[in-house]
Amino acid sequence: MRTIVNQPEVFLRQKGIKASFQRVRIFDYLQNSREHPSVSKIFEDLHPHIPSLSRATVYNTINLFLEKHLVIPVPVEGTEARYDLSEPIHAHFFCTGCGQIFDIDTKAFPLPAELKDFDVTETHVLFKGQCPQCVGKTSS
Amino acid sequence: MRTIVNQPEVFLRQKGIKASFQRVRIFDYLQNSREHPSVSKIFEDLHPHIPSLSRATVYNTINLFLEKHLVIPVPVEGTEARYDLSEPIHAHFFCTGCGQIFDIDTKAFPLPAELKDFDVTETHVLFKGQCPQCVGKTSS
DNA sequence: ATTCTTGCAAATCATTTGCACTTTA
DNA sequence: TAAAGTGCAAATGATTTGCAAGAAT
Fold first, then answer.
1. pTM, rounded to two decimals
2. Strand B91-95 vs strand A91-95: parallel, antiparallel, or unpaired?
3. Cross-chain residue pair B129–A112, CB shorter than 8 Å
4. Which tens digits make up the pLDDT trace of B28-74?
5. Helix (H) or strand (E) holding B40
6. Taking CA A82 as the corner, what is the angle to CA A96 and CA A16, rounded to the nearest 5 degrees?
7. Which of A31, A41, B82, B109 would suit a FRET pair with B52, their CA atoms being 20 to 30 Å apart?
């Protein structure tokens, strides 16, 4: 269960990020989105409400959030990067039918013995297939 | 442990793929590579030996191999796709220091109950961090 | 006033496409 | 010789960069 930050400006400052209008809006968007959005999606959804917003600013902001570890890239292959707020370990399910990415609760993955000399900082588990809404539909 | 195909032309035909010179070379390259290479890497390594080779052919071939399920994309974020020959389930470790991707043997990941109505066709486990060679070095 | 942020446009990089030429069954 | 494969160059799409103008401290 995600913890919603209700004072994003304070939260951003604590992370060493100056809380500009655009950054707060993008952070709010990420908090309220469950779709692990791409930069394009963020831009297209916010642009109508912030007409002056530029794609470059969304890229700048996401890259800043990445540096400060507020967001992580969801490791799905494909041409467009998708992002998620950093959270305790959880898995993702990527639907090859509709492209949605679902959060899946899961216990921590037991670390294989092979990795004992590695410094493991992140674990990602990705399932792929069809979600219940897509299972019925043709898949040709 | 990977099974090496020593008659790639026969193998490709069995998969319904016409065994052109370039395709056999690219398949051989994938078999002998342990680096989960990108298209650029494949191209740059083969080009000196096959001067006529074109990047487009490498893309065509990889896309064909993907269709025929000979290779799978390794789901790491980043701007360049990386590929692996299809294999029984295993995990990957991505080193944020040197960019190497290691194969890690692992038991099948137990399917979370949440996914009972999903059609799960693939499971990917990705660990990230620093490999033993990079752990010592500065990380600023 | 200095520093950081934004927004535009141009640049870059990965990937795809269109098409003419070559290979091969 | 028809069908499929290759290679080049141009097109597309995502992302980054350079820079001038704007906002914040």
1. 0.75
2. unpaired
3. no
4. 999 888 788 999 999 999 999 999 999 999 999 999 999 888 898 88
5. helix B39-46
6. 160
7. B82
Residue A132 touches chain B, beta carbons under 8 Å = yes
Structural domain containing residue B61: 8-84
Is residue B73 included in any domain, yes or no? Answer: yes
Question: Are A106 and A135 found together in one domain?
Answer: yes
Burial of A113 (C-beta count, 10 Å sphere; 0-12/13-18/19+)? exposed
Q: Number of structural domains, chain B?
A: 2
pLDDT in tens, A69-116: 899 888 777 778 999 887 766 788 888 888 888 888 776 667 788 888
What pLDDT shows up at residue A43? 96
Question: Which residues of chain A does B69 touch, with a Cβ-Cβ cutoff of 8 Å?
Answer: none
Closest nucleotide over all strands to A18 (CA to C1'): C4
Q: In angstroms, what CA-CA distances link B88 with B2, B52, B71, B105, B107?
A: 9, 35, 12, 10, 10
CATH number (domain holding residue B113): 3.30.1490.190
- Across the interface, whether the CB atoms of B119 and A135 are under 8 A apart is answered yes
- Asked whether the predicted pLDDT for residue A20 surpasses 90, the reply is yes
**A117:B132 CB<8 A:** yes
How many whole angstroms separate alpha carbon A7 and alpha carbon A12?
9
